Amino acid sequence: MGTTGRRLRADAERSVRTILEAAERLLSENPGATMEQIAEAAGVARTTVHRRFASREALIETMATSAWQEIGEAVDAARPYTAPPLVAMHQATANVLQIKSGWRFALGTLPPPGEEAARVYDDVMAKCDMVFERALESGLLRPGTDLVWARQVYLALISEAVHGPAASSCSPAHTGSVTGADAGPGDDPDALAARIIDTLLYGLAPR
């Protein structure tokens, strides 16, 4: 591909990214926003949006695919196959929290819309289940733990951290967190991850 071709491709990719980011912002505030409103928010012509996306549904499917691909990369960065299970769980959680906060609308529907987004989602869930299996084998989880339920609770805790009142809270330190964090969670993904993993593994009872 020549220089001109690469430049045109880069321009097209930037255009798509601009539209996706604008759609995320707008649809998070107004889920009924139209393609015309999204084009205006993105600062591009309506024809540009329709040229990139055949329909509103196609745009939302692309948003979901992009978001779940970022989630997948975030999980991979935590080395789920090789890192100690507790380390992998904490790092994956911190990484995912940062992604989810920027894709609240796109990640708000489960299973995600579109075949590609669903495929990536299934792959992420398989890696999550594998880390939980490793945690069980290593003794991090008690024998007989229902791993399906453990994963559901874990995902619910992440969702609460991103979308619930806890997302903006800044509570006192939790002494003895499994990661050694000594600050309230606030907006710090590491501190929020520490709270999530601590709650998942130990609940709210005293140690």
Topology at a glance:
Layout: H1 3-29, H2 35-42, H3 46-52, H4 56-77, H5 85-100, H6 115-137, H7 147-163, H8 189-202
CATH fold topology of the largest domain: Tetracycline Repressor, domain 2
Q: Strand percentage, roughly?
A: under 5%
Distance between the termini: 61 Å
Tell me roughly what share of residues is in helical segments. Answer: 55-70%
Per CATH, which architecture of the largest domain?
A: Orthogonal Bundle
Question: What features would you describe in this structure?
Answer:
By secondary structure, this protein is an all-alpha fold. The protein folds into two domains: 1-53, Arc Repressor Mutant, subunit A (Orthogonal Bundle); 60-202, Tetracycline Repressor, domain 2, CATH 1.10.357. The protein contains eight helices and no strands. It has helices at residues 3-29, 35-42, 46-52, 56-77, 85-100, 115-137, 147-163, 189-202. The longest helix is centred in the N-terminal third of the chain and has 27 residues, at 3-29. The radius of gyration is 20 Å and the shape is elongated. It starts with a helix and ends in a 5-residue tail after the last helix. The relative contact order is 0.09. Residues 169-184 have low confidence and may be disordered.
Features:
207 residues, mainly alpha, Arc Repressor Mutant, subunit A, Tetracycline Repressor, domain 2, elongated
